[in-house]
Amino acid sequence: MFWIVLFAVIALAAGGFCALFGHSGTMAAVYVDGELYDAFDLTAAVIPYEVTVTTEYGSNTLRISHGAVAVSTADCPGQDCVRQGSIRDSLLPIVCLPHHLVIQIED
Q1: pTM for the model
Q2: pLDDT by residue (tens digit) across 47-95?
Q3: Three-class secondary structure of residue 85 per DSSP
Q4: Sheet containing 68-74: which strands, arranged edge to edge?
Q5: Distance between CA atoms of 95 and 3, rounded to whole angstroms?
């Protein structure tokens, strides 16, 4: 009986760990004017890298890292998108209103 309970507890702990920390297939979707501009696989980003999104509205440099995305630089006046920092989940997107840019995490 002891072994059954022990294995059940281990299985539940492993399942909880995967549910909390498993970012399988997590993508950062970049939208400009509501249209998909590009998407980046955050689980494949073993080494962080930067990508510049340049549109008619301006330029934003995104920092893509394992499980997270952030705007590292932007040529907009407010810099709210830069100050927001990185996001790791779909609760709150990064928005740059002057550049009509929205970055959100999607599974």
Answers
A1: 0.75
A2: 999 999 999 999 999 999 999 999 999 999 999 999 999 999 999 999 9
A3: coil
A4: 49-55, 58-65, 68-74
A5: 51
Tell me how far apart the alpha carbons of residues 102 and 46 are, in angstroms, rounded to a whole number.
24
Give the DSSP H or E segment for 105: strand 101-106
Cα separation, 18 vs 94, in Å, equals 25
Hey, which residues does 50 pair with through a beta bridge?
63
Vertex 32 angle, CA 97 and 50, to 5°: 90
**Strands 35-41 and 49-55, sheet pairing:** unpaired
Quick: pLDDT tens for 25-44.
Answer: 599 999 999 999 999 999 99
Q: Which helix (H) or strand (E) holds 46?
A: none
Matching residue, tokens 């810099």: 79
- In the chain, the amino acid numbered 46 is V
Map 20-41 to HEC letters.
HHCCCCCEEEEEECCEEEEEEE
| Residue 4 and residue 33 in contact, taking contact as beta carbons nearer than 8 Å | no
